[in-house]
Amino acid sequence: MPAIELDGRALSKRMNKDLKRRAARLPRRPGLAVVLVGADPASQVYVNRKGVVAGRIGFVHEQIDLPADTTQRILHDVVDALAEDPAVDGILVQMPLPRGLDANAVMDRIPVGKDVDGFTPPNTGLLSQGRANLVACTPLGVMKLLADADVPLSGKEAVVIGRSNIVGRPMAMLLEQANCTVTVCHSRTGDLEAHVRAADVVVAAVGVAELVRGSWVKPGAAVVDVGMNRLDDGRLVGDVAYEEVVEVAGWLTPVPGGVGPMTIAMLMENTYRASCAAQDVTPLSAFEGV
Questions:
Q1: Which residues are catalytic?
Q2: Whole-model pTM above 0.90?
């Protein structure tokens, strides 16, 4: 039997609709500011999608476009101004930045309460201690997908392929906090296939097209594909060989339409929670009071 599809489009649509209802109860509309430096096509598409979703759910959305030759000082000044603006609840600086700009120095200027990407050291540190405030959006979206599908996690073996600060490391922490036994694999892992074969849950986030093959996957495993790769023929594929893995796995995310929409939904959820904190309002949980 083919794997159950973990449909991020459908779940994010439900969550965004509910978030619009919760956000409408706030004294002031949540404010999200997105800073885009340069004209990277993929970044532009992603930033535009964020703006569309933010507007749809009733947030105040501001996009600040800066040229690729923007200096570090100018970028710092922009972020500092947003940090001081009481109408801005969340600040997102779209990555990657053009060559020559120090992303870490920029992230360090974002106040912890406005770090809706969940990338700053204070928020990642809180996550490591199980005291998460604002969590990185993609790993959080993966956890929501797994929970919505009632995928069992406690006591299971999980493998995360990739150790980036954006996905791999926070993903491993969230799975560990869900009582998985977690192995993080990377470019220096000796026998990646053997690790994947032993896993009940696989999260592939390494950026290598169709790396995970059907023969690698344990029958019935949950496989989450965070990858997004454009092939020479124009096709968009993930880090998982979908047509092979769908015949083996118990659950599988499509690319596109799996994790991507959930990342944006979690960004909006983080912005809502940041706005609640700024307005001294207790946030409503998803679907609470429905």
A1: 50, 94, 117
A2: yes
Residue type, 112: V
- Which residues are CB-neighbours of 93 under 8 A, at least 6 positions away? 34, 35, 37, 75, 79, 103, 106, 107, 110, 117
- 198 Cβ contact partners less than 8 Å away, ≥ 6 residues apart: 157, 159, 218
Q: Which residues are paired to 61 by β-bridges?
A: 32
d(CA 161, CA 153): 17
Residue carrying the six token digits 């995928």: 151
Asked if 9 contacts 263 with a C-beta cutoff of 8 angstroms, the reply is no
What does the alpha-carbon distance between residue 269 and residue 75 come to, in Å, rounded to a whole number? Answer: 26
**Exposure on the CB side of residue 46, measured as CA atoms within 13 A:** 22
* Residues 6+ away with beta carbon under 8 Å from 260: 8, 228
- Please give the backbone phi and psi of residue 29, each rounded to the nearest 5 degrees, phi first: -65, 140
Q: How many CB atoms lie within 10 A of CB 190?
A: 7
Query: 290: pLDDT confidence band, cut at 50, 70 and 90?
Result: low
In contact, 169 and 163? CB cutoff 8 Å: yes
Amino acid at position 166, single letter: I
